[in-house]
Amino acid sequence: MVASCGNNAAQKAEQELQDSTVFADSSNDAIADSTARVDATIAFITDFYNSEKFENEEFLKAHCSAEVLKKLADDYEYEGGGLASWDFRSGYQDGPSDRHEIISVESLNDNWYLYTFYDMGNKGSHKIRVIQKDEDFVIDGIQ
Prior knowledge:
By secondary structure, the protein is of the alpha+beta class. The protein is built from three helices and four strands, in the order αααββββ.
C-alpha cells in the first residue's frame, strides 16, 4: 500500500509538471500570436500614414468601420460631401518642409495605438484603434 501511495504521489507530480508545461507552451503561443498581431498592426499603421492612404476614399471605405466613416464624413467641412482625411494628420495647412513620415507607433491597450508623425515637417500624434477582421485591418476609432 505504501508503494502505491508513493507511486500516486509521483504520478500526480508528473501530471502537474505536464499540465504546467502545456499551460506555459500555450501561454508562449498566445504571447507570440499577440506580438505578431501587434507588429502587423504597427506595420499597417506605418504604411497607412507613410503611403498617405488616408487620402484614398476607396481605401478608407474598405478599411474603416461605419462609425469612423461617419466621423470622417461629419468632420468634412466642404459642400458636396467627402471624408475628412485631415483627421489622420496634424491639422496644419503648411509646414517648414515636405517631411511626411511616421516617427513611432506605440501599442496601448484594447487595440489602441498612439502614432507620432511628421506632417509637412510639423510633429503630430493621434490615437487610432485598429482591429483585425479575417486578414484585413479595420480602423475602428480615432482620437
